[in-house]
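Project outcomes to date are best conveyed with an example. Our students and postdoctoral researchers have been running inverse folding experiments weekly, and each run begins with a structure described purely in tokens. The record below, which covers 165 residues, was selected by the lab manager from last quarter's runs and is presented without edits.
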């Protein structure tokens, strides 16, 4: 037996034992990280969904509870009541000015699901009252000067509505 092989013969068991214990330690210690990684991502995704739900709820409150967008942007039945199954779907303007007014619009666009324009254009309209034409929208569209975060909430809500018709 040479010096070399004797050396391997004596050290091999220690080496194997060391490798086995290293593998054991890694398995035990590594496990929490392996398990923790996907769990750690989940609360973030949930928080993001939560943020979006909060934004949409705030937009709904502004649109339906404060600004009354549905007052004009929802078609009316023969008795003049808004048709709730067609909420914010646009149609004819349901009233006329008491005296003829230049630049009075006859139709309102659909807002539900597919509001007209890009997000940036909608936010510009709601924060500055400048429409896509570069001018204020025609009457009777009110002039809105919302904060940017309110306008973002409104856009998020309008886009979240299912397009049924
Ligand atoms: C009193 C009636 C009325 C109310 C209330 C109203 N709108 Fe309008 N809206 C109109 C009319 C009329 C037009 C069409 C204007 C035009 O053709 O120039 C219009 C146009 C728009 C447009 C299209 C603008 C463009 O660039 O073409 C958007 C978007 C819009 N409204 C969003 C809203 C939102 C959001 C609300 C609520 C925060 C709202 N409107 C409330 C009457 C109204």
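After processing, the design step wrote out the following sequence:
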């Amino acid at each position: 037996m040479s010096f070399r092989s004797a050396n391997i013969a004596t050290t091999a068991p220690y080496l194997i034992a060391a490798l086995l214990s290293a593998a054991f330690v890694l398995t035990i210690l590594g496990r929490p990280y392996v398990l923790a990684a996907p769990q750690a991502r989940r609360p973030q995704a949930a928080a993001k969904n939560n943020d979006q739900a909060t934004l949409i709820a705030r937009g709904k409150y502004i649109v339906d509870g404060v600004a009354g967008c549905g007052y004009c942007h929802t078609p009316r039945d023969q008795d003049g009541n808004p048709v709730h199954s067609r909420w914010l779907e646009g149609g004819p303007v349901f009233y006329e000015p008491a005296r003829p007014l230049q630049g009075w619009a006859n139709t309102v666009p659909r807002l539900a699901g597919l509001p007209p324009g890009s997000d940036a254009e909608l936010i510009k309209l709601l924060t500055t009252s400048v429409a896509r034409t570069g001018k204020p929208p025609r009457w009777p569209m009110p002039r809105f000067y919302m904060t940017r975060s309110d306008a973002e909430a409104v856009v998020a809500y309008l886009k979240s509505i299912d397009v049924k018709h």
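The CA atoms of residues 17 and 23 lie 10 Å apart. Residues 1-41 form one domain. The training component of this project remains on track.
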